[in-house]
Design a protein that fits this description.
The protein is of the alpha+beta class. About 40% of the residues lie in helices and about 20% in strands. Strands 1-5-6-11-10-9-7-8 form an 8-stranded mixed beta sheet. The radius of gyration is 28 Å and the shape is elongated.
Length: about 450
């Protein structure tokens, strides 16, 4: 017998699942569009050279490659691949269409991506990303707006326990330099440091050794991280990092003024959507945040939940000013944020955060069929009710009324219309409320109004 399960790490979506997804996606779209972001879509399949080399060595290994077809199939070579994320394809689109797009381009994209990763709770091989990106400006207003948009999305969905961790790749570069890690090994070091919250200090130390990075380099970084683990003002954090790396290398490119300005922009952006008690604790500076993707060049972010019922992030992003230039001659600044739709849905389901009506059937009323001779009238009634704005399901067979009512109860339809011989003769409808069990005779032209009321 054939295996009826989907491939490992992939899923089928039943109607209730899709209603939940659409509920979340619709709120994300509403918020993103309220910030002036426009929709964009890219193909599921990219040329393999578009993706390779953009995510670091570990990312390259997780790309689903597509073998050449036809007469080239026997070579075992790949020329195409399923997209790994939405950022690199967007960078390609910007480079390819920069003359047609405005100077400052704000886009959102909600599409599936694929990764040959090990499946786990909230982690799948096919999953949706909900990206929002701002192209064309180096101003930190961009970062503040992106963090503001994703904060509003989560607040609208009902989350109250999320935090946005913030750091900067330029600062991490200086920390790695001060730890005597060669530039060519920075990405390896960042990929390892990105796992700090998952495997702990000893786990990262072992990874450093496995990657050929000296243990003394990690010990130096770990000492700094231990000192900065407790909450403290940004100015104190920056001052301590400045001591660690040496003020001479702490140039004008990166100062505590950038942080204070960014946090101030964020507070202004969120004042209207988040109460004062929560606002000041949503965004915080975390020097341990690394994010393993190699294309980040500036600010980086990650959203975590603090209730303790879900480990890992539900979103992240950062500035990638050099990525678009890989596809063209011109360097174009860009910054983006991605929400993990699948993880958000997992947490919302487990916490019971979805509106109860999403569990109901997608029909407001079911029209029964009394007998073969009355099928035409049942279909006509259904059409009349649909024109009034109701969602109408027609039972497909002239079956026993008991079976038709039982089916309506199974799929949670709130009302059922019956047109027996008497109702047809008098141009009336027997309307049953499936919640209360009450049944009444209603004039045919008043049925829609009765149901709506």
């Amino acid at each position: 017998m054939a295996n009826t399960n989907p491939a490992r790490g992939m899923r089928d979506f039943l109607p209730s699942d899709i209603r939940k997804r659409n509920y979340v996606i619709n709120i994300i779209k509403e918020v993103y569009e309220s910030y002036g972001f426009e929709p964009l879509e890219t193909p599921a399949v990219e040329n393999i050279e578009t993706l390779m080399g953009k995510y670091g060595e570990e990312g390259n290994q997780l790309i689903f490659k597509i073998l050449k077809r036809g007469e080239h199939e026997k070579t075992g070579e790949a020329d195409l691949a399923l997209r790994y994320d939405l950022t690199v394809p967007t960078a390609r689109v910007i480079a390819n269409n920069k003359n047609e797009l405005p100077k400052f381009f704000k886009r959102y994209q909600i599409q599936p991506v694929w990764r040959a990763d090990r499946p786990a709770r909230g982690r799948f091989r096919e999953f949706y990303q909900c990206d929002v990106d701002a192209i064309g400006s180096k101003s930190m207003v961009v970062e503040a707006e992106l963090c503001g948009a994703v904060s509003e999305v989560l607040t609208r969905l009902g989350f109250t326990d999320f935090k946005i961790r913030a750091n900067d790749r330029r600062l991490l570069t200086k920390i790695l330099n001060a730890a005597s890690i060669p530039l060519e090994m920075h990405i390896d070091a960042l990929v390892s440091l990105d796992k700090l919250d998952k495997v702990g200090s000893e786990g990262v130390r072992k990874e450093f050794l496995n990657r050929g990075i000296g243990a003394e380099s990690f010990d130096k970084i770990d000492k700094l991280y231990s000192e900065l683990a407790k909450p403290q003002p940004i100015d104190q954090i920056i001052a301590r990092i400045g001591e660690y790396i040496g003020r001479s290398s702490f140039d004008d490119e990166y100062t505590d003024l950038d942080f204070n300005m960014f946090f101030g922009f964020f507070d202004c952006q969120n004042e209207s959507i988040i109460d004062g008690n929560l606002k000041n604790h949503i965004l915080y500076f975390d020097v341990t945040l690394a994010r393993g993707l190699s294309y980040y060049t500036g600010a980086i972010f990650e959203i975590v939940l603090t209730n303790g019922d879900f480990a890992g992030s539900i979103g992240g992003g950062g500035r990638y000013d050099g990525l678009i230039g890989m596809f063209g001659k011109e360097e174009i600044p860009a910054c983006g944020f991605s929400l993990g739709l699948e993880r958000i849905i997992v947490v919302m389901t487990e916490r019971g955060m979805f509106p109860p009506e999403l569990e109901q059937n997608s029909a407001d009323v079911m029209v029964t069929i009394w007998n073969e001779e009355s099928i035409a009238e049942s279909l006509k009634l259904a059409s009349e009710l649909r024109k009034s704005g109701l969602r109408v399901l027609v039972y497909p067979e002239a079956d026993k009324m008991g079976k038709q009512f039982k089916y309506a109860g199974q799929i949670n339809v709130p009302y059922v219309c019956v047109m027996g011989e008497n109702e047809l003769a008098e141009n009336k409808v027997s309307l049953k409320n499936m919640t209360t069990g009450e049944q009444e005779i209603v004039a045919r032209e008043e049925v829609a109004t009765k149901i709506k009321n």
